[in-house]
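In response to the reviewer comment on reproducibility (Comment 2.3), we provide here a single inverse folding case reported in full, input and output, so that an independent group could reproduce the run without further information from us. The structure tokens appear first.
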């Protein structure tokens, strides 16, 4: 189950921020790697690296002892997957800055999916309000 790997990684990151850790580790998965690249590109984490044992170590990022990862909402669960088309994505998630969508083109932000006129499964979102 791909979603369970993603959910485990996201909860691990969130718990690391709550515990004020500098880094956390999780199991390697290609989907997790793509999400980590997005998180790093948009400034939610400092980076990540791989260990010899097959783990990914994620470096957590703080700004003035505050993190932006405390408002994580997981939308699709393994038992309840939610799919949205382009119109639903643009209406429902237009005020959210970071919504991750999985579709036939891969894992991307909702803004990129709307520009490519693609819908997909909404995995999670971060709300910075």
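Designed residues, in position order:
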């Amino acid at each position: 189950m791909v979603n369970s790997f993603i959910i485990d990684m996201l909860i691990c990151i969130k718990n690391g921020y709550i515990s004020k850790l500098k880094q956390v580790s999780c199991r390697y998965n290609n989907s997790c790697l793509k999400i980590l690249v997005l998180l790093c590109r948009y400034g939610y984490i400092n980076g990540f690296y791989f260990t010899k044992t097959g783990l990914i170590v994620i470096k957590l990022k703080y700004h003035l002892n505050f993190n932006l990862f405390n408002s994580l909402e997981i939308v699709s669960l393994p038992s309840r997957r939610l799919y949205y088309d382009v119109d639903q994505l643009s209406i429902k998630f237009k005020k959210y800055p970071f919504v991750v969508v999985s579709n036939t083109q891969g894992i991307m932000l909702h803004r990129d999916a709307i520009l490519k006129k693609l819908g997909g499964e909404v995995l999670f979102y971060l709300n910075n309000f």
